[in-house]
Design brief:
The structure is a single chain. A hairpin with a 5-residue loop joins strand 23 and strand 24. The protein has 304 residues and is mostly beta strands. Strands 1-2-25-24-23 form a five-stranded antiparallel sheet, with no helix packed on it. Strands 3, 4, 5, 6 and 7 form a five-stranded antiparallel sheet that branches. Helices cover 0% and strands 44% of the residues. It contains no helices and 25 strands. The N terminus is likely disordered. 43% of the residues are buried.
Length: 304
């Protein structure tokens, strides 16, 4: 799986930014058009770090990502960076309560940064297990497995994200009974436990793999990567579905202003509704395929 090798305007972003829909001065007749820019996320990643699958808190002061960065606990680890004094801090390891000698990946923060759900696995292509850790008294607690029915043995789960109110957990899984490959599911919180997962249905799930779903603050928009007949140049693109009158709409390609001829994956919707973070091996600054996947932020003035 290629994703396992993982700006901010008020954060003092530097570097590449591309205005897709016009110049700074917008003609009156175009005032209603969405303005869209892409900028490279400026966390001080190492040149060979290969950051993937970022997640941020609602106030965008804490970011987590996965990386095989050296000096970790083994294989893929989760790393944090904090926005302090006008810039992102040097990334630091999430620590032994979260990271182990196995792979830790797909870390997703709750909106307030008090809960982290992530994947642990010895072999990401074979099976994974979902874990949760909580930030209490200034430290992350020892991660505990979620277990069945959300994360049963001998299945793969990825991209588990909490709804804003914490009452639902959305994730992808290859468990039996789906439409094929990885499908998207949600589980309702029942006290301190999670209920039987519910498949999001054939409007979203197909015989292909649906992975890395990200959810809007109001729970009415989901975005995820997949490869379909209408993908740009046969690449992996990001697709969107919207909840209308209790049903999810058929998925739609987000289009060439966001998707590239490269591999676009690992989306994360900012809680303001106008920001979308993603990994892409397409260099939006040069307009060509890069040597590795980088983390980008898309700003859409009309929101997603």
């Amino acid at each position: 799986m290629t994703r396992y090798r993982s700006s901010f305007s008020h954060f003092g972003v530097v570097g590449a930014a591309i205005a897709f829909l016009g110049c700074t001065a917008t003609p009156p007749e175009q005032a209603s058009e969405a303005k869209m820019t892409v900028s490279k996320v400026v966390v001080p990643f190492l040149s060979d770090e290969q950051p993937f699958c970022v997640s941020l808190t609602e106030d965008e002061t804490l970011i987590v990502y996965q990386s095989p960065r050296s000096h970790g606990h083994g294989n893929l680890d989760l790393w944090f960076s904090r926005f302090e004094n006008g810039k992102w801090s040097e990334p630091y390891n999430a620590g032994p309560n979260i990271n182990s000698s196995s792979h830790e990946a797909d870390g997703k923060l709750s909106h307030d940064g008090t809960t982290l759900v992530f994947v642990r696995s010895d072999n990401l292509a074979k099976s994974t297990e979902l874990y949760v850790s909580r930030f209490e008294n200034g430290a992350w607690t020892k991660a505990e497995p979620l277990g069945p029915p959300v994360s049963p043995p001998e299945t793969r789960e990825f991209g588990a994200s909490l709804s804003h109110d914490g009452k639902r957990l959305y994730f992808s899984s290859d468990r039996p009974g789906g439409n094929g490959g990885m499908d998207h599911y949600y589980s309702e919180r029942i006290g301190q436990s999670w209920g039987e997962p519910v498949n999001l249905g054939p409007g979203i799930n197909t015989k292909e793999d649906e992975l890395d779903m990200t959810l809007s603050r109001d729970g009415k928009v989901i975005i995820f990567p997949t490869n379909r007949f209408d993908s740009i140049e046969g690449s992996t693109d990001l697709y969107v579905s919207r909840l209308t009158e209790g049903a999810w709409s058929p998925i739609q390609n987000l289009g060439s202003k966001i998707n590239s001829p490269g591999t676009d994956t690992c989306p994360w919707l900012g809680y303001d509704g106008t920001s979308l973070y993603l990994n892409s091996d397409w260099d939006f600054a040069s307009g060509r395929k890069g040597d590795s996947s980088l983390v980008w932020k898309v700003f859409n003035s009309k929101g997603f």
